Description:
Blueprint: E1 4-8, E2 20-25, E3 33-40, E4 43-44, E5 51-57, E6 63-67, E7 76-80, E8 90-92, E9 95-100, E10 105-107, E11 111-116, H1 129-207, E12 211-213, E13 219-221
Parallel strand pairs: 1-3, 2-11
Antiparallel strand pairs: 3-4, 3-7, 5-6, 5-9, 8-11, 9-10, 12-13
Amino acid sequence: MREIIVLDLQKTSTQFIPVVFLRARRGDSRSLERTFQLLDGGEPVNLAACTVSFMAENAGGRPIIEDVTVKDQSGQFTYRFPDAVAAVRGSITMAYFRVVGQDFTGSTNSLRIEVLDNVDLTDAVTGAYVPMLDRIIEQSQEMAANADEITRQATAAINSCTAITEKATAQEQARVEEEARRVVAEADRASNYSQKMAEWEKAVLGLTNGITVNDKGQLCVAVRKKA
């Protein structure tokens, strides 16, 4: 059952003493809601023909004025306090309802509203979501680190293969050049050998039985003419 807070326009000698204490949390958005009934000397005020306004100064000294839109002839209404009430942590000692009728203006006793502090969520979140989020962030960081290490190792392997290939190519080129020089030297040696053999054979034939070899390579027999 909803609690009804009764306020009377006919204030007593304790009119400046708050008649009710309310509590809110700083930053709460219109979470402070109460049902009130306004009386005038103990009799319900017909609010249908009146303008009812909430008047207050929040803990930061900022004035707050807001009209109550839903009210009836029984003097009852349910009011949800504006966000500005809970904007600043501290005590609100000046808060009341002002009633303006056709031939009168009145106000209720003061309400005392205590605005409590809240948890600072600037650098933290709450609930089971925190460790889960931490695990996700940690795994992401590990995956990124592993990817960097794999990239580094792959780059090192590629550089090593490139160096080996370049070295092997240089060695193969040197081997081919050395083989070419050996073949040329062998050809020169063979050519010189053939030339020496031809000269040797020619000399041998010249000394054997007067046989000589002419310029055309033909065998000839030396014949002496009689004198």
